[in-house]
Amino acid sequence: MSDRERGWCEVPMVRTWQLAAGAAVVGLTLAAGAVAAAGPWDSGQRKAERDRVVAHSPAGGAHHEPSAPKRPAPAPSAVPVLTALGGPRTVTAKEPAAPGGLPEILGPLLADPGLGPAPAACVIDLTTGERLYGERAETPMVPASTVKIATAAAALTALGPHHRIPTTVVAVPGAGRITLVGGGDATLDRARLGELAERTARALRENRPAADDGEPAAEDVQSATKIRLQYDASLYQGPAQHPVGPNGNIAPVSALMVGQGRLDERTTGAATRSADPAGEAARVFGQLLAERGVRTGTPVPGRAAADAVPLAQVLSRPLSSVVERMLTTSDNDIAEALARQTALATGEKASFAGAERAVTRQLKRLQLPLTGTRFADGSGLNRRDRVSAALLTSLLARAADAAHPELRPILTGLPVAGFSGTLEHRWSDTSAGTGLVRAKTGTLTGINALAGTVVAPGGRLLGFAFLASGTPSPYDAQPALDRLAGALVS
Fold first, then answer.
1. CATH 2.130.10.10: does it fit domain 3-31+166-315?
2. Each residue of 88-133: pLDDT tens digit?
3. Is the N end or the C end of the chain the one with fewer CB atoms within 10 Å?
């Protein structure tokens, strides 16, 4: 692997805890989580932009663009985009029947040597689904991180936008032991793990488990100040290490992790990751419990007992928000987690192979062109992935379709040119497309891609995908891709 490649790049099938009954036994009412469930829209403003999730949360994705000086800029909600998706119309100018001369406009730009010998392109009208331009559009190519669009569509189809991923603490009355159970939340951070520790400590202090006869149990594990802590990350199966190998852009895939396995959670982007994210999460959880008066000793791995009941739980944000964060920041850890969550929801094993089968099956449900495709992983780091430009634009069309509102977070999560995520520094203030192009980037050594939406003259919303392989340098390929997307604006 080259230095360049190293640097670039509902219902979970957890053990059935019967939360309602378990809470009655333990005497707890579990809180619902950090935020209320919400859809992908909020008065026309993207939640990811409003909440600044990206700005205040560590990003797990690879760095997709050359270094550029940072400049403060708010992330816009492009009114024409919302209009084209069915919101109140504000465009009064007469809209053209179709963008004219696309072959004459895009052909020369596609011939840029920075895009390698045979780039692929597809442009469609997202309102009608009509293809406006195609060049090798059906050719399967290495998509890099643009495959995350497919991962997002599969997860939203299988789980729904309101699904939340749990992290749970359970106990067997009288056993003197609690178990931290990972549900696959790759967004779990120290703050939310602290909430779980607080709820666990309160449950241990204030509640006593009942025996089968309704009397207090002989051994009161919950009133103890020292208990044993074990952790259960058995939800996922198969190899944890991504085929790309140890990499700062992705941790070993685990159903239990905190801060995406970063040894220093204050870092963002590429960072040194723990080789054992589950063990590290349990260690941090033990520290957080100790700060609250509960001593646990060294945590050990182990499966939760079948008769364990829940003590406390925290939930991820709704899947709509998780998808938005994953796409905006190109987060590899979240992408792999969503692929496995899709596998669990559809009865497949939560492994790389099981996730591939599950993602493929969900995309078939959407009646998408899958000839020659391959989803060897959910993040796009695997060079065995194959996706066509036609598939990517078809995915965008499904996301814009009023018949599939569950897929709308795919569009709202795309980075905004010149403003947010992996496109923040890809457009200057005066570039065509700034604020009007929203797209998912893709970068590996010799591979560059861009797929998203653009507001064309008259407020018309187009979907596009440009895939290039054999590119000499991202410093040549990325500007060439940006010019292609920008040309659709003018």
1. no
2. 333 333 334 445 589 999 999 999 999 999 999 999 999 999 999 9
3. N
